[in-house]
């Protein structure tokens, strides 16, 4: 193991964020299962893909910790919410989750800056950019779901159109431990 290069306080907070990312993964799986159970395959596929993305975010953080010579703590996570009142609720929860993660990532950046840990601050910059995209995407989806909750096939059509523009892997993304799946 190489000498630790990240600040101790940053390492502690990043290990906590790994748990948050795995928790987000579990919530997105729960959302996907809910939509799968309601025969809404596009919404299910959207949230299954989001779950993989959250897992990959956690693994990027794990790779950074490993590369920094830091101790990695893979934590357990709280059980996700699985009972939803309607098809709007899982998407509203996802938007709130993304806003919360944005605050968590901003706090990570602040810790790195406070500790004069410029390498860790630079690492976090990609996640800040990613959160802007995530909040925007989830906000748009929530608007569509709220408008179309009585006709969910409109939501499915929207996702078929919007998700057909698959974006490839981001070449600026940090590497993930084990490789991104």
Level of helix content? 55-70%
Radius of gyration: 17 Å
CATH homologous superfamily placement: Ferritin, core subunit, four-helix bundle
Structural class: mainly alpha
Strand content: under 5%
| Shape field | elongated
Number of folding domains?
1
Amino- and carboxy-terminal Cα gap:
25 Å
How would you state the average pLDDT, rounded?
93
Biggest sheet layout = none
H/E series, N to C?
Answer: HHHHH
CATH architecture: Up-down Bundle
Looking at CATH, which topology would you report? Ferritin
Top-tier CATH class: Mainly Alpha
The total count of strands amounts to: 0
Please report the number of helical segments.
Answer: 5
Low-confidence stretches: none
What labels describe this entry?
elongated, mainly alpha, 181 residues, Ferritin, 5 helices
General description of the model:
The protein contains 5 helices and no strands. The chain is an all-alpha fold and 181 residues long. The protein has a single domain (8-163), classed as Ferritin (Up-down Bundle). Helix 1 packs antiparallel against helix 2 (41-67) and helix 2 (41-67) packs across helix 5. The longest helix is centred in the first third of the chain and has 30 residues, at 8-37. The model has no long low-confidence stretch (mean pLDDT 93).
